[in-house]
Amino acid sequence: MEITKLSTKGQVVIPEIARRNLEVGTAFIVVRKRDLIILKEVEGLSDWEIKEMQELDKIWKEIDMGKKVTKSRDEFFKEMDSW
């Protein structure tokens, strides 16, 4: 087990033993559940796909904070029909 710290810039160093066989620029999905943070390696994502994932994450956070509304499937399609 290794210990690492969060920097003032929000960066965390992955200890050498845990990053063996990883290349610089490797993409990860980051999931946090209470005090557990999981990094899941994602292979083959383009820069565009990574930006899209970041944008979706931002939208979900806004929904969680009550800044956006969620609708059922039927409500969504009903509204879409009115366009």
Can you walk through the features of this model?
- With 83 residues, this protein is an alpha+beta fold.
- Helix content is 39%, strand content 17%.
- It contains three helices and two strands.
- It has a two-stranded antiparallel sheet with strand order 1-2.
- β1 (27-33) and β2 form a beta hairpin.
- It is elongated, with a radius of gyration of 18 Å.
- The model has no long low-confidence stretch (mean pLDDT 87).
Strand content: 15-25%
Number of domains: 1
Number of strands: 2
Principal-axis shape? elongated
Q: Biggest β-sheet: count, sense, barrel?
A: 2 strands, antiparallel
Please tally the helical runs, counting DSSP H or I stretches of 4 or more residues: 3
Quaternary organisation: single chain
Strand order of the largest sheet: 1-2
Structural class: alpha+beta
Indicate the percent of residues in helices: 25-40%
Order of helices and strands: HEEHH
Mean pLDDT: 87
Separation of termini? Answer: 56 Å
Radius of gyration: 18 Å
Which short descriptors sum up this protein?
83 residues; alpha+beta; two-stranded antiparallel sheet; 3 helices; 2 strands; 17% strand
A few lines on this structure:
The chain contains 3 helices and 2 strands; from the N terminus they run αββαα.
Give the arrangement of secondary structure elements.
Elements: H1 16-19, E1 27-33, E2 36-42, H2 47-64, H3 73-82
Antiparallel strand pairs: 1-2
